[in-house]
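TICKET: design request
STATUS: open
ATTACHED STRUCTURE:
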């Protein structure tokens, strides 16, 4: 069946006028590839034998923007639609590994197609001549093969970004690499140092969201390590732990596959265990442990985020989620309310998805997923009950506490303690009950309550107990790991000293 296009009006207008003017005009590249794959093209690029100045004369009655005239490209506003029109060209040397030093205009579309990256992108189509496919792109697309046009090393050395583009195409479309192309990708990976961080980040995030990302990450781990050296120690690192069936790298890749294709969440899963090799030790029974790996993973994720020049907002989200990927989210409604108050609903849901993917990636403990489904059910119940989850939701505010006699910074402390009590028992959220709690606190100043974020296992609890014991006046502590609730007992205890001691050790005092 002959290839046909339902062209937008602007594209059709441009092709018709080029033909009427005596010039060749083709749809080229991605639009042809997508149409052959049965997809609806969203972008159309036109190439032509007409020189840029000739295109401008042909469309003298339309707005024409010289978007890249040095390389033969102008944008024509035809039928109210912008259409990029580029003159057939060949290219000179790529001294910077990204852009040609010069171009030469030619009259044959085949010469233009010969400079392109992959055969599936080196096809053109015109209404008059139909498909032009000098390098077998249609057959490669049908066989789901990705192949460089001509010499693979030459194509990748011209533009190193093509290395990541190849991986992205494979991840998105499930394409297999032609052997010579695959070998050239590995061989030329160091050239990625010539590519800007922004372009690398854009390709990487699209790759991670591909339906076939896992296979690509496993097959081309050396290329990923070229742009993210933080993952190199993970590759082949055995965990020697009954909770983990796979190496750190394979576990992380499986976790990437197990979470929805959101760029942030998939990057979190790629890096959430990056700190494991640096924190690994084996006990006397031959079992591997990774205490503190979340903190180290956060440090490595920050290095990666800054190298990729991610936006500040995305970087902060990435670091928070990596840091807390291992912290409990609660197994009772009381604990879930506490954690919701700490993280907020959006972040809590993200952490829940992360924990599910992490569990699937372990390959050993399906019962953990059952517990997480119960936590998810509790989350919905808590939200449906419209629970008090922040100081704004309390039945009293700072003005009430001032009227009751609280002063200065103590107002914020008492509001936090009142919130903590309401999170444990929502029925306390009445003015009378909160006043009774406040009065009891004032009469018993040897008890300070706070919520600490960042505890994820028993050793953290022991460390927090040890840190708090150094504060003058502290005699004992009670810690609930699941919710992060900490009650400190003693004489004349300073809340600020407690807070400073914990934060200096990397913990977050959030309530």
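STATUS: resolved
RESOLUTION: sequence designed for all positions
ATTACHED SEQUENCE:
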């Amino acid at each position: 069946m002959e290839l046909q296009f339902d062209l937008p009006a602007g594209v059709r207008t441009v092709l018709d006028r080029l033909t009427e003017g005596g010039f060749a005009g083709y749809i080229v590249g991605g639009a042809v590839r997508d149409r052959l794959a049965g997809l609806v093209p969203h972008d159309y690029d036109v190439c032509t034998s007409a020189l840029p100045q000739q295109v401008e004369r042909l469309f003298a009655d339309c707005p024409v923007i010289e978007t890249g005239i040095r390389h033969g490209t102008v944008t024509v506003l035809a039928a109210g639609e912008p259409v990029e029109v580029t003159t057939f060209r060949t290219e000179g040397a790529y001294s910077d590994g990204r852009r040609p030093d010069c171009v030469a205009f030619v009259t044959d579309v085949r010469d233009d197609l010969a400079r392109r990256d992959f055969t599936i992108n080196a096809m053109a189509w015109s209404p008059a001549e139909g498909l032009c496919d000098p390098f077998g792109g249609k057959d490669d697309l049908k066989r789901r093969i990705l192949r460089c046009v001509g010499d693979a090393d030459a194509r990748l050395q011209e533009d190193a970004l093509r290395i990541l583009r190849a991986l992205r195409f494979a991840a998105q479309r499930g394409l297999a690499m032609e052997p010579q192309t695959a070998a050239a990708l590995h061989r030329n990976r160091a050239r990625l140092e010539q590519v800007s961080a922004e372009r690398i980040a854009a390709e990487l995030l699209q790759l991670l969201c591909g339906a076939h990302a896992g296979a690509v990450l496993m097959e081309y781990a050396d290329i990923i390590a070229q742009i993210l050296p933080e993952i190199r120690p993970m590759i082949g690192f055995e965990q020697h732990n009954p909770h983990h069936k796979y190496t750190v790298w394979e576990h992380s890749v499986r976790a990437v596959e197990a979470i929805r294709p959101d760029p942030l969440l998939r990057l979190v899963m790629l890096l959430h265990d990056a700190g494991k090799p640096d924190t690994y030790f084996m006990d006397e029974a031959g079992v591997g442990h990774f205490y503190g790996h979340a903190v180290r993973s956060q440090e490595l994720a920050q290095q990666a985020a800054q190298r990729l020049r991610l936006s500040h907002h995305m970087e902060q989200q990435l670091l928070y989620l990596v840091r807390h990927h291992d912290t409990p989210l609660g197994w009772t409604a009381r604990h879930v309310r506490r954690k919701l108050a700490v993280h907020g609903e959006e972040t809590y849901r993200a952490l829940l998805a992360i924990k599910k993917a992490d569990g699937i990636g372990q390959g050993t403990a399906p019962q953990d997923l059952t517990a997480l489904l119960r936590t998810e059910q509790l989350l919905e119940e808590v939200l449906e009950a419209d629970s008090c989850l922040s100081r704004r939701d309390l039945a009293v505010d700072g003005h009430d506490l001032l009227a009751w006699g609280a002063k200065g910074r103590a107002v914020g402390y008492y509001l936090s303690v009142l919130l903590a009590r309401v999170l444990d028992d929502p029925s306390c959220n009445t003015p009378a009950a909160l006043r009774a709690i406040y009065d009891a606190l004032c009469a018993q100043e040897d008890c300070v309550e706070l919520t600490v974020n960042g505890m994820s296992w028993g050793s953290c609890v022991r460390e927090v107990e040890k840190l708090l014991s150094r504060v003058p006046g502290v005699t004992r502590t009670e810690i609930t790991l699941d919710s992060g609730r900490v009650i400190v007992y003693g004489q004349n205890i300073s809340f600020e000293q407690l807070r400073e001691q914990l934060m200096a050790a990397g913990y977050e005092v959030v309530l």
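CLOSING REMARK: The first helix runs from residue 9 to 20. The domain at 228-384 is CATH 1.10.3210 (Hypothetical protein af1432).
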